[in-house]
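Researcher: Go.
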Amino acid sequence: MEEKNNGKTIRAWAMFDWANSAYNLVITTTVFPAYYVAITTNAANGNRVNFFGFSVINTALQDYALAAAYLVMVLLLPILSSIADYRGNKKIFMQFFTILGSLACCSLFLFDEKNVEWGIVSFAIAAIGYAGGFVFYNSYLPEIATLDMQDKVSAKGFTYGYIGSVLLQLVCFIFILKPELFGITKAFASQLSFLLVGIWWIGFALIPFSILPKGSPNAKSHHHNIIKGGFIELGNVWAKIKGMPLLKRYLPAFFFYSMGVQTIMLVATAFAAKELHMDTPDLIQIILVIQIVAIAGATIMSRLSAKYGNVQVLILVVLIWIGICIAAYFTKTHTHFYIVAIFVGLVMGGIQSLSRSTYSKFLPQDIPDTASFFSFYDVTEKLAIVGGLFSFGFIEELTGSMRNSTLVLGVFFLIGLVLLFSLLTTERKVQKKTEFSGR
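Model: Structure:
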């Protein structure tokens, strides 16, 4: 078993976030959505595109593609985590999905208005690579950090991710803002950004791949075919979770507020480009501000959780998210969007970091391999993304407005808030019971 709280191992683990967060920022959050909306909006077809013979609203197609990618991961993760748990080789899967995702990003270099299908398929495959690598990355947290350090280490990972992604975003921003300095067009600058993301992703991922432990085999726990066993193991994890009152209450809350959080992060740029007609340089500037604020946000939330408790801080953060959804519906100007975006940055990193560490802290700390438990966590999150993105795209197609979709996300946050209050009550009961039995 690897020594916990080892500084070198923790830094290497955090570098994986540094490597793949560039995808999340450039591909899903800024450059790709703005580039995609720009090249698929024209006088002849408006905002509709032809995708393998189907006419679809461009932004709704992007939402559906991401939803499909995450649905694929929901089906694959139980199988993959079962194999990783059995063989103790989760690092191999991290490597496979990193290569897959980085190559898909590189292939977006060839994406233009003439081959929408190529771009959307590559976009979806990159999402599969990102999501697949992240589940095994997350499962390292309780393996490399003790219970008292998990909030801090989780926040460190997100902080590394934000810093790394901002650095690459700045490089891409220079190409996009001043393409004439390099003798290229603005469209080519966006395509070049996709290529740089792929190279950055695989390049920096070599650091954690060279240092992180491969994982601990747990062959004795498997008595089934590995493919079938993955889903059986997922069922076994759920059976164990039902006997853990805190996790049983936490996961439904996490599911509903994640429907809102993850969807907002994935559609914010498309919303600004389409509803507020913001161009790519403006979008990159505001997203950079979000990332910088998010670095501080993740650290602040970590410190607040140490003082007041994870669940209490999560309740506060979800309340802010509800306000963000309402504000987004009424946003009409660029200035209003900047203000909303700053609040998004403040709570974006905090809620992701706290969600991961809260789940990790609610887990039994003596289990030999955490891949199956974190598979359940990631399946929950990916299902939330599927539901959130599909709902957002469907409401837009139904009503013709992305603004209406933001209100639906507010409802998801509200349900999550109610469930978090229920979790808080349960947590207090468990604490009283523990204190009473310890006397």
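Model: The radius of gyration is 21 Å.
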